[in-house]
Amino acid sequence: MDCLVPGTQVTGVDAVPFWRRIRLADGREGWSAKKFLEPVGPVVDELAPPEAAIPPNAWLEVHIVDVGQGDGIWIRTYDDGVAGNGVFEGKNIVIDGGPDASPGEATLRDYLESRGHHGSVIDALVVSHPHDDHYPGALRIFRHFDVASYYDPGFPKGGVEYPAFLNEVKAEKTEGHPIELHIGRSNFGVPAWGKEVKVEFLYAWPGANDGLGSKANTVENNASIVMKVTYGRHSFLFMGDAEGKERDDAPDKPKYVEKILLAEHQPEALHATVLKLAHHGSETSSTLPFMQAVNPEIIVASSGRKKFGTVFLPDVSVLERYCQLNPAVRMYRTDKDDEAKYRTTKNDADGDHVVIRTNGRDIEVLAYADGVLLTTGETCQTVPP
Q: 49 lies in a domain?
């Protein structure tokens, strides 16, 4: 252990999440938290590298963390060890935080801190919409990490809890600088997460509730941020809780957000290699025209053991539709074996994480059950009848 005097110039040698290996002028090497390092000299203005220029080991990782019934996602971009060149910068982006902000629970914050260090910088935190299985855990992210920028659909949720959450967000400072607030789609801009990564906000609450449903819960779901991330030849579509119909509607006529997406974007703009299923795989999403446009190779359901009426999510009918669309689709879920193990909402965050990584050409999935790596995911042959 040693201390660096502010102003000491070092050379970047290697990088891992939240840390950078550095070399001092006297030849010594060690690790420093990235938050304490700043690039010096001219910044190289590189264009986004084409697929062929992405190094084979330059993995972009998407961690869909088992937070029980809810969403908690960590995206980590590759770090080439060169600070400030605008490409391969090792960014950390969080989408939602799961349902729990209580210390001692299995939360997204615990997952992140086990792989980084306390007080690290989260470059961006995106809350898809203000439902309590998406935003409460984000509070612990703010309390244990420095968050540089925040994205929110701007939906005017009443009550006490969410406005209090936003007040705490607005008071956030990172390295003495106020947090960058991107509240409302018109304020999202183009995220600076590295020129090698294409980020598109395809939808967020439009500022009015017309066409988003007649029930308050449905309207709030349909305020969700829909975001697409593309890296090389592969892309990820994150749907929040955006819906396409009522539960009892036929799946062939889209409504709500899925109808809007289909009207505003060409099918190729919606196509994605990986789809994080909308609304935890509920029958209120995944209408046939929308599925045909996205046509994913991999689907992931982030869900737990919370009962909605008479069902748990994901709905088997939704999984069956994807199988009918593409019998080779690979399916993963964060409630793996929860029913067989009699899990409840008190213990369903049990380590069923899904980690997907790509170097722009290859794509790999690491799926876990109770923290143990699985050899295969669910296939269409294993969907219950």
A: no
In tens, the pLDDT along 194-249 reads 999 999 999 999 999 999 999 999 999 999 999 999 999 999 999 999 999 999 99
pTM score, whole prediction? 0.91
Residue 93 lies in a domain: yes
Nearest partner of 335 among 383, 280, 380, judged by Cα = 280
Regarding whether 73 and 104 lie in a shared domain, the answer is yes
10 falls within a domain:
yes
Gap between the Cα atoms of 34 and 15, Å rounded: 9
The CATH number of the domain where 233 resides is what?
3.60.15.10
Best CA proximity match to 122, nearest among 178, 74, 185: 74
Contacts from 14-19 at CB under 8 Å and sequence distance 24+?
Answer: 14/81, 15/79, 15/80, 15/81, 15/90, 16/79, 17/76, 17/90, 17/92, 17/115, 17/116, 17/120, 18/92, 18/115, 18/116, 18/117, 18/120, 18/121, 19/116, 19/117
Strand 363-369 to 372-373 pairing: antiparallel
What are the helix (H) ranges across 115-197? 136-144, 161-170
Domain count, the chain: 2
Indicate the Cα dihedral angle 45, 48, 52, 55, nearest 10°: 70
Distance of CA 130 to CAs 170, 258, 363, Å? 16, 19, 32
Within-domain flag for 310: yes
Residues belonging to the chain: 385
